Amino acid sequence: NAGVTQTPKFQVLKTGQSMTLQCAQDMNHEYMSWYRQDPGMGLRLIHYSVGAGITDQGEVPNGYNVSRSTTEDFPLRLLSAAPSQTSVYFCASRGTSVYNEQFFGPGTRLTVL
Amino acid sequence: GNSVTQMEGPVTLSEEAFLTINCTYTATGYPSLFWYVQYPGEGLQLLLKATKADDKGSNKGFEATYRKETTSFHLEKGSVQVSDSAVYFCALSDPGNSGGSNYKLTFGKGTLLTVNP
Predict the structure, then answer these.
(1) Average pLDDT of chain B, as a whole number
(2) The predicted structure's pLDDT at residue A98
(3) Which residue positions in chain A have pLDDT lower than 70?
(4) pLDDT value at B89 more than 90
(5) How far apart are CA A101 and CA B57, in angstroms?
């Protein structure tokens, strides 16, 4: 199993550009989520999904869109990039039990100029 | 709501020193508790977990005991190594009143540990 994969690893955007961060998992997990990690802020939940076709907002959803058309994939879209979205983005997946650990991807480092 | 509070870092230790990273939590139900570790340039990975009161999670020489009476889950290691240098996150998963279907994890802000030779 590859686990949770993310692409790209690094990305530089100009203000106003749009892009999609890709995330895929091969563990048949129902629950997937996107976090951003900023210095001194820990991990902040952007959006999450509890299954195909079901998504919901997390703590910091503004400026981001998600969709979940399959169990495996959970892309994160930046509609109009802003410098405040410079961050490291992590995708994660988890099984349905509250006892299950969350598996993280390797992250995407995004810089918005 | 749920919350996790970790001791603020950074923590700097010499090799073979004793490590404690404090973690306390607030939850509405009976949460499961986790410690995750993030090595430089990598994603988070599970270090250990405990799913009920008085459980002790352990892995790679690290231990943490789920203390319901003090709502704590402190991480300890008797003798740290340079390779333990990383950021450590405490987290909880709380079924709350949702019949066990609350999938979200609540994370602390992380504690940076640096171990010097």
Answers:
(1) 90
(2) 66
(3) 98
(4) yes
(5) 13
Mutate to test the interface with A, among B104, B109, B111, B112 (most CBs of A within 10 A): B104
Cβ of A102 within 8 Å of Cβ of B100? The answer is no
CB–CB contact A106 B43 (8 Å): yes
Question: Is the distance from CB of B27 to CB of B92 less than 8 angstroms?
Answer: yes
**Is pLDDT at B100 greater than 50 in this prediction?**
no
| Cβ neighbours around A69 below 10 Å, total | 10
Q: For B4-9, what is the mean pLDDT?
A: 90
Question: Distance between CA atoms of A58 and B49, rounded to whole angstroms?
Answer: 24
Is the CB of B105 less than 8 angstroms away from the CB of A90? no
Beta partners for residue B27, in sequence order: none
Q: How far apart are CA A63 and CA B97, in angstroms?
A: 31
Q: Residue B4 and residue B50: Cα distance in Å, rounded?
A: 15
- B residues 50..79 contacting A (CB < 8 A): 51
pLDDT on residue B30:
82
